[in-house]
């Protein structure tokens, strides 16, 4: 027989405990706490009682959180998307081992998890806290859904973070005039012996992620229809290096490429074909951007170093100023399209975003500027109508 749940308050938060009566003794079935309201604790306890009543209650797992998370990641998510995505899960696992050492996942309460966010937020920016929360909470959500734990301790927690640690966002987006200068420079300084400028130019003109551009093979280029097919990436962060999946299903796409960029690639392919005639074993992976001396793909560090060098040479950044990274090429490409009033759905598909909401959140500052510009233009249009101007 199951007794009525015991609801109690401790340290200004509400807790519950559900017991089972066996031979006149009370044996605990489940308990948890950290609720702001008594009604929330009562609701959680009632749910467990209902499960027991209908025979659907499952005993919580006795695995430690780090062990559970590791097995969950390996089983359901490892290798399913990009290498960068896998690294986010591994980073989350390190945090779990640090902040929840030897703690059973079933024993983690809402207050335990909030304390983790509070501590982690003391030394990290809000965006960093949010990212950690997303990858950790996902495990809790699924564990709760499938009955491994009786409550989801991440429910209605408060995200934290030190705003003074937020990074300057200006290095993520280039000034459009500087962007134009960079493109013109790389276009006039192409050398097949150093293909870094090629990948900078292609990324700037397509908005591809670095790992997508690094994983391009010659069969992805449709010269007749002026398109590039993006269906894989190059894993450059973890051995064994090689081809990997795209970030998500939406990242697998075919995008239009302009005639000038297509012409650059056509000439680069001729160089590649000539080298293969001399050395049949040259470029066995059929990649676009490889170092001629060893046939290996361009590294992200190598690209960022070259990009920084060019920007300093052109006066785009000064000595001591934070350098742009390869991702700035992608962000600025998208910003350029939005500033030119290209439809956000088109931009979202071109970037390979999972949905338009992602695009909106990333470029909300650009969209606000475009909206303000359109409002100003509307004022002029209405004024001309009223005044009878043509």
From TrEMBL:
**Keywords assigned:** DNA integration, DNA recombination, DNA-binding
Q: Where is the Tyr recombinase domain?
A: 169-379
The Core-binding (CB) domain sits at: 60-144
Q: Which SUPFAM superfamilies match?
A: DNA breaking-rejoining enzymes
What's an example Gene Ontology biological process for this entry? DNA recombination
Task: Spell out the molecular function terms from Gene Ontology.
Answer: DNA binding
A Pfam family assignment? Phage_integrase
What highest taxon heads this organism's lineage? Bacteria
Q: Which CDD domains match?
A: INT_ICEBs1_C_like (cd01189)
Gene3D superfamilies, sorted:
1.10.150.130, Intergrase catalytic core (1.10.443.10)
* PANTHER family linked to this entry: PHAGE INTEGRASE-RELATED, PROPHAGE INTEGRASE INTD-RELATED
Query: Which family is this sequence assigned to?
Result: Belongs to the 'phage' integrase family.
Q: What is this protein called?
A: Integrase
